[in-house]
Amino acid sequence: MPEPLTQSEVDSKTDPTVAKQFDTETPKSEQIDDFYKTVDKLQIGLLTTMRPGIGPVSRSMAVAKRNGPDFLFFANNHSKKFSDLENDKTAQITFQNSSTQDWVSISGVATTVSNEDPRIKELYNPALSAWFGDLGDGVHNGKPEDPRMSLIEVQPKYISYWKSTVTSLGFLKEVAVGAWKGQVANTYVLFQLSNFLLRRRLNARLVFLSQLLTKPVPNGYILWDIFANAGSGET
What is the DSSP annotation of 154-199? Predict the structure, then answer.
């Protein structure tokens, strides 16, 4: 239900919508897992780069692979986004679920890889050729060996994502009641994740898997508890 605006929120220049709906209770490990589940369902997002003299420029891109918190995209290295990234490595990825209005915003740095990167052949899908064309010269054919075929890898530094907690009808009710009573609508929860937490959780996962593969783990239930809470500030 909508919540009253407080004097302290005004005095501290706090955005009440963010303050009231920012999640401080869910363990970070659960937030990270939930983030992965959310983005894995939203395979197409906007990739934003910084263009000199213009500013942010976005385009729709399909995710080729998510590797932990990092995202890979196939791209034509003749496109302007490559010159954008040569000048400024800053990148942003945004996803939105049109059904629930859930959204994800990922800010980070992007690196580009040459056509020699083995991941191109690993991740290549023949449908990609439709975006490259075939010149008929046996080289520029939209296949993995096409010198134009490259990858952009985005490594997050900061992530925020918004999850709806009400139905469409509930959203309208919250807004209507909030406007009527002069209160703040409560329609979602907001999560924020840092690069440090993401990397810490990933490293914990790698250590755990390494231990599983190399030798039996004594008191495995204890190790699993540590692993499950990695990055949450609870260990």
Answer: EEEEEEEEEEE-S-HHHHHHHHHHHHHHTEE---EEEEEEEHHHHH
181-196 pLDDT, tens digit per residue, is 888 887 878 888 887 6
* Per-residue CA distances from 45 to 74, 160, 220 (Å): 13, 15, 39
Whether the predicted pLDDT of 99 surpasses 90: no
The C-alpha angle with vertex 71 and arms to 132 and 128, in degrees rounded to 5, equals 20
**pTM given for the model:** 0.78
Q: Are strands 3-4 and 55-62 parallel, antiparallel or unpaired?
A: unpaired
Contact 179, 187 (CB under 8 A): no
* Cα 129 to Cα 113, 114, 140, 223, distances in angstroms: 18, 17, 10, 46
Amino acid at 148: R
